C-alpha cells in the first residue's frame, strides 16, 4: 500500500467515498508494524480514543433512534 503514506491515503479516500466510518492518521517515522514501534503507546492510545469515540457516537445514534420511536 505504501509509498510513504500515499497508498494509505488512496485507500482512505476509497473508504470515504463508500461512506465508511474511517479516519486517517499517519505516524511519521513509523512503518509496517506500528504496534511494535518504540512509540507504540501513542498508537494504542489513538486506537482506544477512536474506538471510544466510535462507540459513543453509535450509542448517541441508538438513543436518538429510540427517542424517535416513542
Write a structural description.
The structure is a single chain. The chain is built from 2 helices and no strands. The chain has helices at 6-17, 40-69. The mean pLDDT is 87. It is mainly α and 70 residues long.
Summarize this structure as a short list of keywords or feature phrases:
70 residues; mainly alpha; 2 helices; 60% helix; 0% strand; flat
- Give the helices and strands as they follow along the chain: HH
Shape from CA axes? flat
Residue stretches low in confidence (pLDDT < 50, at least 5 long) are none
Rg estimate, integer Å: 16 Å
Can you count the beta strands?
Answer: 0
**Biggest β-sheet strands, sense, barrel:** none
Oligomer: single chain
Mean of the pLDDT scores? 87
Give the strand content.
under 5%
Distance between the termini: 47 Å
Measured as a percent range, the helix fraction is: 55-70%
Helical segment count: 2
The computed structural class is mainly alpha
Provide a quick synopsis of the model.
With 70 residues, this protein is mainly α. 60% of the residues lie in helices and 0% in strands.
Write the layout of secondary structure elements.
Layout: H1 6-17, H2 40-69
Amino acid at each position: 500500500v505504501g509509498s510513504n503514506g500515499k497508498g494509505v491515503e488512496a485507500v482512505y479516500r476509497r473508504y470515504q467515498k463508500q461512506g465508511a466510518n474511517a479516519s486517517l492518521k499517519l505516524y511519521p517515522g513509523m512503518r509496517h508494524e506500528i504496534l511494535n514501534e518504540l512509540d507504540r503507546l501513542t498508537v494504542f492510545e489513538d486506537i482506544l480514543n477512536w474506538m471510544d469515540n466510535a462507540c459513543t457516537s453509535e450509542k448517541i445514534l441508538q438513543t436518538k433512534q429510540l427517542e424517535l420511536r416513542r
